[in-house]
Amino acid sequence: MIEEPKSPENHSATRINKLYFLLPILFTILLALIYSQLVVTSQAGSNSATFLFEGYNEVFIALNIAVITIISTLSLLIFFHILKTKRALAIRVLVSSFIMGGMLSALLFGKHIFLLLNFESPLFLLVVAFVGYIGTYFAYLAFIDALSDKTRNALFLVCSGTLGSFLGILVPVLPVILISLFLSVADTILISRNTVEDIVGETQYERLIMKLAFSNKEWGIGIGDLTCYSMIVANTSVSYGAFAGSLSLLLILIGAFFSLLLAMKMIRVPGLPISAVLGLLPSISLILNV
User: Domain range for residue 108?
Assistant: First the structure.
C-alpha cells in the first residue's frame, strides 16, 4: 500500500521528492539482491554438492511451504480478530514479530558470510547471540511503543530486506509467483473496498498505516509491499542469476514510480500490483522459455 497526504499543500512537496520516495525501495531490494548473490556465491565456494534445499525431497519442501502458508493465514485471521477489539496491542505484536523475523533471517546472511570466508569458528555463535539480543531488544521497544520514527523506519527497511530475501531463497520460483500475484489481488481488494478502514475507522486507519509503514509526513510504503519486493528480487536472483535479479529490481522501481504517480491523484493505491507484476516478468519469461 502506498499512501499520499490528504492535505493539498503537501502534494507540491511530494512532487519534488519522487527520488526520495524510491530510495527506501531501492535500499530494500538491493539488500535482497546482495543477500541472494551472497548465498549463491558462498554455496558455490563450499564443499557441499547440493545447493540450498536441493538435498531435501519435494514432499519435504511442499510440506514446509504448506506449513508457512497455513501459519501465515491463521496469523492474519488472528490479527484481524484482535484488531477489532485491541487495536494497539495487535499493531505492537505485529511490528514486534516482524522485527524478530527480520533479525532471525539476518542470521542466514551471517551464516553465508562465514561460509564465503571459510570461517569454521565458534565465533558465529557470538554473532547469533548478538543478533538475537539486538532483535529481542528492538522487538521489545516496538511492543512497548518506545521506538522513534527514524529507528522504526530503519528497522523496517532492514527487516523487509532480510525477511523477504529469506522467503525468496526458501520458496521455489512458481510458488513465489503465485504468492506474489495472490498478495497483489488481496492488496487491491483491501484498498478498493476499504476493508481495514471499515474495521478501525478513518482516524485510526491513518495511525495504523503510519505504524506499519516506512513513512514520513508526505507518504508511506507498507512493510508488506517492501517484503514482497525483496522476495521477488531474491528469488529471481537465486533462480536465474544476478542479471535477471537486477532486471527485476529495475522493473520494481519503475512500477513503484508509476504507483506513486497514481497515489498523487488517488491519495491511496495498492503498492503491489504494478511493481510485483513487473518484477515477476523476468522469472515468468524465463519459465515460459524453458
Answer: 2-289
What is the arithmetic mean of pLDDT over 201-222?
A: 74
pLDDT of residue 50: 43
The secondary structure of residue 118, as a DSSP letter, is: T
| 75-116 pLDDT, tens digit each | 777 777 776 777 777 788 888 888 888 888 887 777 777 776
Q: Take residue 269 and report the three cell numbers written for it.
A: 493505491
Cα–Cα separations (whole angstroms), residue 120 to 55, 100, 109, 124: 21, 26, 15, 8
Q: How confident is the model at residue 58 (pLDDT cuts 50, 70, 90)?
A: low
Could you give the angle at which helices 223-240 and 149-170 cross, rounded to 10 degrees?
40
Give the span between the Cα atoms of 258 and 264, in whole angstroms. Answer: 10
pLDDT for the residue 133: 85
Residue 63 C-alpha cell reads as: 510440506
Q: At residue 114, what are phi and psi to the nearest 5 degrees?
A: -65, -40
Phi-psi region of 216 (alpha: psi -120 to 50; beta: other; left: phi over 0): beta
Q: Are 38 and 245 in contact (CB under 8 A)?
A: no
Cell numbers at 19, concatenated: 527520488
- Global pTM exceeds 0.70: yes
Check if the beta carbon of residue 127 is closer than 8 Å to that of residue 110: yes
Number of compact structural domains in the chain: 1
- Residues 6 or more apart whose CB falls under 8 angstroms from that of 161 comprise 27, 28, 29, 31, 32, 35, 102, 226, 230
